[in-house]
Amino acid sequence: MAKHAELPSDYPPPAVEVRLIRRIVDLRGKRVLEIGAGDGRLTIQYASLASSVVAIEPDPANVALARESASATGITNSSFKVGTAERVRMGGGAFDIALFSWSL
Prior knowledge:
The protein has a single domain (about 15-100), classed as Vaccinia Virus protein VP39 (Rossmann fold, 3-Layer(aba) Sandwich). It has helices spanning about 15-25, 40-45, 60-70; strands at about 30-35, 50-55, 80, 95-100. The chain is globular and about 30 Å long. The chain has a four-stranded parallel beta sheet, covered by helices on one side. It contains three helices and four strands, in the order αβαβαββ. The chain is α/β, with parallel strands linked by helices. The mean pLDDT is about 85. The protein starts with 15 loop residues before the first helix and ends in a 5-residue tail after the last strand.
């Protein structure tokens, strides 16, 4: 049986991005808006630092993956919404921080 080779990732190793973000801003206790969350890869890494996270992503399949990952890792303070920053409606007041990483 052939082994499945894992392809190299364009993303930095886990924790590198969060370390860089934390050099610029303190995420602790902040309400974070993440634009272009993809499959939740980065969200899962920093969510435990924030008070809450709203992560938006236009691809429904990626949102489903992000929700599954958050659930599997015990992340309960994050919500994942299908949409774009221009179109998604969010209540709950202002955000303290907006993150936009690896999104075009």
